[in-house]
Structures are given as structure tokens and as C-alpha cells.
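Hey, sorry to bother you again with one of my protein questions. I've been puzzling over a protein and I'd love to understand its fold better. Take your time with it, there's no hurry, and the full record follows here:
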Amino acid sequence: MAARRTGGSRRPPPKAETLMSEYRDGVRSLGKRESGTKLVIGGKSMGGRVASLIAGDLYETREIDGLVCLGYPFHPPNTPEKLRTTHLETLSCPALIVQGERDPFGNRAEVEALSLPPAIGVRWIGDGDHDFGPRGRSGFTRKGNLANVADAVAAFIAGLPEPR
């Protein structure tokens, strides 16, 4: 996106695995936390996937307390057989995935068929797409859906144990 703003051409984003060290360095650059301060990492779509790839290690070393993924890309659109979930199967870090019910990267029926570990909770956003937007006649609104996202994240963080 930055390259496009300066006249560069549109290119696909880097693979999530190539961003892991940069994300990890970003978390570690925060330095020592104040006592009692919770640190939760995460992101939207690929940002959440990158965070999820490093969360287990950072949780084990007590550098983070939890993980939040908004619109997790469980698979590329229209290819539900190409799952991006192997690393989630053993995740012990407390995690929340907030997902639109109609997300093309993993809708409710597809995600509920997966075997996610107990550490991962999923909060469904009513009739939401990948950006949590509902269809016009669904009875849901974008504003209401985004408020539900914020409430889910706040409740998750409040429910985390005090830092270890």
C-alpha cells in the first residue's frame, strides 16, 4: 500500500510467514510492561494470521497475554480445502477470533466444522462479510456490527487472567 501511494505498482502482499520476524520485533520493541498491564496482539485478516503464527511462542515466554484476530483468513475465498489452520490446532495462547457469518475466508458453517482448541473462542458477527458489513435487508447494520466487534474484544481482554 505504501508503494502505491508513491507511484509504485500494485503487487500482492508478502506471504504471512515472511512478516513474522517483523511482527515479533515490533512486539519486543515495546520493552518491559508495567506491572498488571495486559498485552494482546492481533490484527485484521492477514495481520491476524501473522500474529497467530507467533502468538504461541510469545505466550510461552510471557511476552503477551492473548491474541485477537478480526476476520481471520481460514482459507482463500472459494477454496475452503486450502486451510490455513495447522498452527491453530496446537495454540495454547488465549485467543479470540471475531468473524463475519458470511466471510468468504471462512463462513460460520466452515469454521464450526473445524476442530479448534479450547484456547480459541470465536465470536460471530451477524450477517457480516470479511469487513463485518451486513447485507442491507438483514436487520444488521455496519455500525452495530462494529460495536459488537469492539464489545467482544473488550470482554475478551477483560476476561484474561492478570499477567503472569
Q: What stands out?
A: The chain has a mean pLDDT of 93. Strands lie at 40-44, 66-70, 95-100, 120-125.
